[in-house]
Amino acid sequence: MAATATVSTRAQVNKRRDTTSTRTLISSVALNRRRGKITYRIVLTLVIVLFTLVFIGPLYFLFTDGLKSTQEAIATPPTLYPHNVYPSNYTQAWNRLDVGRMLWNSVYYAAGALAFQLVFDVTAAYSLSKLRPVLGNVVLFLMLATLMIPATVLVVPQYVTIVNLPLVHWNLVGSPEAIWLPSVANAFNIFLLKRFFDSIPPDYIDAAAVDGASPLMILWRIVLPMSRPIIGVVSIFATVAVWKDFLWPLLVEYGYSPTREGLNVGIWQATYGTPENLIIAASAMAAVPTIVFFLIFQRNIMAGLTAGGIRG
């Protein structure tokens, strides 16, 4: 009994040491008081409101400036709200800038890039994770090393490659493939997929191999159904990356085919000779799909990034 009491006393002392060793800005004693709770809630509310205004503010001005007149939209300092509301600005911008056509082109480019990425990035990650080729770690290291290179540095080599595609010597400038193919080699997405594939227990792979399944069949029947969360995340990243890109579509599409311009390049081109309020209204409409896309799939983004294993 005495030994048990001694052990219990030591455990309580160690527990107290652990709790008191944790250092915070506000002690737990002060936080449990009424004044401390009120102060904490006030500070927390102010911080949340401040950060909300920082992130929501640009979107608010984007959509409200599209409702203003041209003079009010370019006024300095800007007005906090439209003094005269013109909802017809959005209709005029849609018809005058042909936003519907540019929206369809952006969807077309994003869907094609997504299809290519899912085919090539998934197979590359599966090969590095489960097939383990010779020098696979070296290949993975070289791919990850490309993440340290700024994207602007790669613009010229990519353009030279697109102008004269190696081996076949095709000029892809002005075609959708000029946007699709450079987006395929995405080291970050391959790394995410490989990391998830590594967490799949090898027992499933070995059991399927014993039953005579080929590596392609194992990928299609076992790996892909288990990898839906991370494939959803990669799909979101691939779609948004192509949707928001401006420099590369400007280089390979602008001036070659006016009917194939996406939202970003098309709105930029329309800035010459179009009132500013209509340009802002068109930009607001171009931002709506990505905002809705994020609101729908925000849980999938976090769930896929944190999914690192298989639950039994």
Structure write-up:
This protein is mostly helical and 312 residues long. The protein has a domain at 101-306: MetI-like (MetI-like fold). It has helices spanning 2-21, 28-32, 34-65, 70-73, 88-96, 99-131, 136-145, 155-163, 177-180, 187-198, 202-210, 215-226, 228-244, 247-253, 263-270, 276-306. Helix 3 (34-65) packs across helix 16 and helix 10 packs antiparallel against helix 13 (228-244). The radius of gyration is 27 Å and the shape is flat. It starts with a helix and ends in a 6-residue tail after the last helix. The model is unreliable at 308-312 (pLDDT under 50).
Describe the structure concisely for a colleague:
By secondary structure, the chain is an all-alpha fold. The protein has a domain at 101-306: MetI-like fold.
List the SSEs and their pairings:
Layout lengths: L1 H20 L6 H5 L1 H32 L4 H4 L14 H9 L2 H33 L4 H10 L9 H9 L13 H4 L6 H12 L3 H9 L4 H12 L1 H17 L2 H7 L9 H8 L5 H31 L6
Helix pairs in contact: 3-16, 5-16, 6-10, 6-13, 10-13, 11-12, 13-16, 15-16
Mean pLDDT: 83
CATH level-3 fold name of the domain at 101-306: MetI-like fold
- H-E string: HHHHHHHHHHHHHHHH
Strand content: under 5%
Helix content: over 70%
CATH class of the domain at 101-306: Mainly Alpha
C-alpha-based Rg, rounded = 27 Å
Task: Tell me the span between the first and last alpha carbons.
Answer: 42 Å
CATH superfamily of the domain at 101-306: MetI-like
**Helix count, DSSP H or I runs of 4 or more residues:** 16
Largest sheet: none
The geometry reads as flat
- Residue ranges: pLDDT <50 for 5 or more in a row? 308-312
Class per helix and strand makeup: mainly alpha
The number of E-state strands comes to 0
The CATH architecture of the domain at 101-306 can be named as Orthogonal Bundle
